[in-house]
Amino acid sequence: MNTAMRALTAGTITPRVLICGRLDRSTLAAHIGFAMTNANSCCAKIEPYLLAILRIAIAILFMQHGGQKLFDYPPGSHKVELISLPGLAGVLELGGGVLILVGLLTRPVAFILSGEMAVAYFKAHAPGGFWPVQNHGELAVVYCFVFLYLAAAGAGPLSVDALRKKG
């Protein structure tokens, strides 16, 4: 008889999670005295703040792309027509970046920006080759998946969304 079944039949534990007929290992370990300290507990305390730092850093970087398209600032690119696909991208990048920066409507805005980056990748980069490193689309892919993550995770504690949730 395995350890889980012995502990269960001895009545020392009640199964909290039963997956495929096996007792959850962390529950079993805790009840039979082999519980390890949670190595992630220190990181768990700062995790929400790291999420906020990621959100803010990505927003600052992303806003620069919109600023280049709309205002040619920071210098290095050319200003585009507002009523065009690149102009729309610039508005989304600058306006969406500001909303992500302050953490306002983070989930829907991040979802839209993730979609924008997916479209940018397949429209502008993918025709240049299969691999992102070959077609210079790495940044579009990274932005796409970071924004998708923010759409799922939310803004974190240092945001307008968090303040709205409290009040």
Question: Tags for this entry?
Answer:
167 residues, mainly alpha, 2 domains, two-stranded antiparallel sheet, 8 helices
General form: globular
Question: What is the average of the pLDDT values?
Answer: 84
Q: Into which percent range does the helicity of residues fall?
A: 55-70%
Q: Nearest-angstrom radius of gyration? A: 23 Å
List unreliable stretches of 5+ residues: none
Across the major sheet, the strand order is: 1-2
Please provide the ordered H/E string of secondary-structure elements: HEEHHHHHHH
How far apart are the first and last residues' alpha carbons, in Å?
54 Å
How would you summarize what this structure contains?
The chain has 8 helices and 2 strands; from the N terminus they run αββααααααα.
Question: Can you walk me through this structure?
Answer:
The protein is mainly α. The chain has two domains: 3-32, no CATH class; 43-166, no CATH class. It is 66% helix and 2% strand. It has helices at 3-9, 25-32, 41-71, 85-102, 106-125, 132-135, 138-153, 160-166; strands spanning 18-19, 22-23. The protein has a two-stranded antiparallel ribbon. The longest helix has 31 residues, at 41-71.
Fold blueprint:
Blueprint: H1 3-9, E1 18-19, E2 22-23, H2 25-32, H3 41-71, H4 85-102, H5 106-125, H6 132-135, H7 138-153, H8 160-166
Helix pairs in contact: 3-4, 3-7, 4-5, 5-7
